[in-house]
């Protein structure tokens, strides 16, 4: 069995509706894994969309202030410009 089937079984046992994060967090606690909770997911600075843990994304420090900048794969592929949320530095 893969990791996806484990998440699905915990989801069915504990979650309902749109509370998928409850099952994922419960599974991580059971297996002693460290993952992002539902409210701690990173956000793409270009499109302001939540980045799921399994998604291909990149994080790098801002050249000016050093704060982490998260970008999703779609925005990077399309060449969407980004802006640091802390200091306002704009990149290509």
UniProtKB/TrEMBL annotation:
Domain Small zinc finger protein HVO-2753-like zinc-binding pocket positions: 44-88
Name of the molecule in the record: Small zinc finger protein HVO-2753-like zinc-binding pocket domain-containing protein
PANTHER family in alphabetical order: SMALL ZINC FINGER PROTEIN HVO-2753-LIKE ZINC-BINDING POCKET DOMAIN-CONTAINING PROTEIN, ZINC-RIBBON RNA-BINDING PROTEIN INVOLVED IN TRANSLATION-RELATED
Superkingdom assignment: Archaea
Organism in which the protein naturally occurs: Pyrolobus fumarii (strain DSM 11204 / 1A)
Pfam family, one: HVO_2753_ZBP
